């Protein structure tokens, strides 16, 4: 359970006033369109710190859902709606790193993750980064640093979702091919001509051309160059 302040707190009155002014300014500014969409999930077991995070993110118009534990997050998680996860590494029960591993294992896509930690641990940071986390921030967290990281994560999520959507669309096209069409598809990608394929498959040139034409229609490509580009640009 975390007891370390999650956000910087200044004792100097003038600096506190500056921060209040900064917050007011943030409320007046709408987020760029690229930053909108989806929900930022905050997984933090300290209720007071969780409230501070929620208020900070909502002040710049993010939609936020808060969770007291990893288990609570898992029970309410809707993958297609999440744009970013802000997770305290040290949680009661399942830890933040274990939650990251759970999402990676049980879901086809993991939203960008920002870890917060009160104790600097190189080994822990390396483990999180290798597992795909976007940022690893030590507490107390500077407000603007956190907002910058969340903005980066939300934009990254949008880009990843678009790649994921395109890849799924391409895979659906591939899955629609018959076994014969798929064989032609693989051989065409290897650079073989219809005549060469007919020899390897022991079928007529005409038969290969029919399979090739059907394959190109199902893949929604009009040329070999377009088909190659589609396959090579898959993430």
Question: What's this model, at a glance?
Answer:
This protein has helices at residues 13-28, 47-58, 70-76, 96-106, 122-130, 143-175, 179-189, 194-201, 205-218, 224-232, and strands at 39-43, 64-67, 82-88, 113-117, 135-138.
What does this protein structure show overall?
The protein is of the alpha/beta class. The chain has two domains: 13-160, Rossmann fold, CATH 3.40.50.2300; 176-232, Orthogonal Bundle (Arc Repressor Mutant, subunit A), CATH 1.10.10.10. It is built from ten helices and five strands. A five-stranded parallel β-sheet has the order 2-1-3-4-5, sandwiched between helices. Strand 1, helix 2 (47-58) and strand 2 form a beta-alpha-beta unit. Helix 7 (179-189) packs across helix 9 and helix 8 (194-201) packs across helix 9. The longest helix has 33 residues, at 143-175. The relative contact order is 0.11.
List keywords for this structure.
11% strand; Rossmann fold; 2 domains; five-stranded parallel β-sheet; single chain
Question: Which secondary structure elements does this structure contain, and how are they paired or packed?
Answer:
Blueprint: H1 13-28, E1 39-43, H2 47-58, E2 64-67, H3 70-76, E3 82-88, H4 96-106, E4 113-117, H5 122-130, E5 135-138, H6 143-175, H7 179-189, H8 194-201, H9 205-218, H10 224-232
Parallel strand pairs: 1-2, 1-3, 3-4, 4-5
Helix pairs in contact: 7-9, 8-9
